[in-house]
Amino acid sequence: EQLSRSPAWRTRQAVSCVLPLLVSTCRTVESRERAAELISPLVVDPVFEVRKTSSYCICRAAACDFMEMSGEPTLDGEPVQDMGRMWLDAVVLPQLESMRTSSKFNDRIISLHMIATLLSERLIGEDDVRCDILLHIALTLAGDRVPNVRLALARALFEITPLILHKRNDQAIIYQDIELVVQHLSADKDRDASYFGSLIAQ
Do 59 and 117 touch, CB atoms closer than 8 A? Predict the structure, then answer.
């Protein structure tokens, strides 16, 4: 815990890197809560490299492989196979939503990195209702006043759109919303955001 508050940003970054392994050893709700308390401040660290690494690792922690313990209960009676989902619902998604609505544009950018990680690395599958929820959350930032946030959205959509298009249903509202946002980004005043928007449109 002291290392997570180190004045050396590379040390704080290193702490975040061990989170997935740490969570994989968590056998009680209390231990998961302590892990969450350790990583949460690092996701909003003043140094971008720490924020980005921490946001990635807090998402990756949900992918901990519990297959070796299949059928074995946790110390507090929770099914082991549900622990990854619990980490997503109890830690990752609330953190993401908090950052998405933050007044700090860097936090909003990190929320988009988190969404891209969750979807591109299949931590949340396209059949999961939370996939559409995450896409809706991302699309709400299409009109952000900060160009870098819109650029982050364009990059995120560029990364994840190919992964969900194979299940495309043109009647689904989410795909209609994505198309509208892509059109909006393609015409963005920011050249970089417009560039990625145009790539998606192709």
Answer: yes
- The answer to whether the beta carbons of residues 57 and 39 sit under 8 Å apart is yes
Query: How do residues 128-162 score in pLDDT, each as one tens digit?
Result: 888 888 998 999 999 999 999 999 999 999 998 87
Whether the pTM exceeds 0.70: the reply is yes
Comparing CA positions, the residue from 145, 27, 116 lying closest to residue 77 is: 27
Adjacent-strand bridge partners of 73: 79
- Specify whether the CB–CB gap between 178 and 135 falls below 8 A: yes
DSSP state of 67: G
Distances (CA, A) of 176 to 40, 141, 161, 170, 202: 34, 16, 13, 7, 16
The token pair that represents 61 in the structure block: 């922690």
173: DSSP letter? H
Instruction: Tokens for 51, please give them.
Output: 């924020």
* CB proximity list for 89: less than 8 A, separation 6 or greater: none
